[in-house]
Amino acid sequence: MSNKIKGTGRREFLQSGLLGTAAAGLTIASTTNVSAQAPPEALEPEVTNDVDVLVVGGGTAGHVAAIQAARAGAKTMLVERGAQLGGASTTGGVSFPGLFDAWGKQVIAGIGWELVKESVELDGGKLPDFAKVPQRHWQNQVLTNQFLYVLLAEEKCTDAGVEIAYHEFPQVVTKTEKGWTVDCVGFGTKRRVNCKQIIDCTGGAEVVGMLGFSRLREEERQPGSYLFRLGDRHEPGRTRLNRLYVHGADSTNSRTVTVANMTGRKSILGKIRKEGKRITHLQPETGFRESYRIEGETLVTVNDYRSGRVFDDAISYAFYPVDLHTKTGVKPKPLKPGTVPTIPLSALIPKGSTNIIVAGRCVSSDQLANSGLRVQASCMGMGQAAGVAATLAAKAGTPPLDVPLKEIHALLREHGQIVPGNA
Length: 423
What we know:
- It is built from eleven helices and 20 strands.
- Helix 4 (110-122) packs across helix 10.
- Strand 17 (325-326) and strand 18 form a beta hairpin.
- It is 30% helix and 19% strand.
- By secondary structure, it is an alpha/beta fold.
């Protein structure tokens, strides 16, 4: 080999390779470029943030909670252990959130609906007519482009002033005189967050568990779902994905999630070989329906849910059939006509706690009630309510349950949410 070739730099090597490719009759598509300008302090291994509200988990409830808190004037930070926002709607692939309507009218709106509506309109999709009562509940689920939703959710967080920390998760949570100190870890990063209020949107109430508050979980939980598509090309926002039940899927920790994901992928590979079809879409991980729920100041029972009980401290509506998935499948049990369940603020508060609130599927509820409460629109409503309650609590220096309900309702209405009793 000559000295000239030995000394050729990487750029010259790549250029010569591309010229050779072009000479062979092939073309390489050009790409656009952007520059990621990280501030100098981003290279420091340790960082401290002082905020009003810390949201842990950027999934279905979490990103809405963070946007709401920031829009309401709270200095807000969102810590998410994954690489993007949206949770079940995006990373899980359940990109047909519902239900925002019940019996011919919209019952959940606010920030979650703003995101869903905007993502459908920007994608040239179609929104359902909520004035029409569908024969089947799923007919009013809104098909969204999961990739577009990720971009919009991040944009709205940024525009609201939310500071996002991806690839990080709390390791130690310590109570302080003014609230909490939360020590988080990511690769190459140690972060200390001093905050007044925590919103736990981790799905399994993991921060609540770290603090030693009581959580509930069934011995036999609903299966997870791994979403994919074989054969025809998947069109996001237009077509639905194939679903594989992963029985025994457990989101307790990284090891149990690893088992669920590898089990799902192995089964999908077996289907590819058996059916001889191309795989055209694969979500990165299993979607989990059920894990830990908090034991809250109020427990929502299936009787509360099915009767449409209007709690004295109701902060959001929910609407979905009782939807328990089992090894033999699922047989949704629709609610009686006119029934619209509500979610009380006290079901978002871990029993005996101060300065922490949850939102999402970890809401205090029995398993059957939770099978209806866990869906995306309801979780978005909970997230927005938690964002409001935490913000007002941080400003007043009180626990969320001590914030006057009329103030929570007023701020929710100001930000476009439908409050029970005013739908």
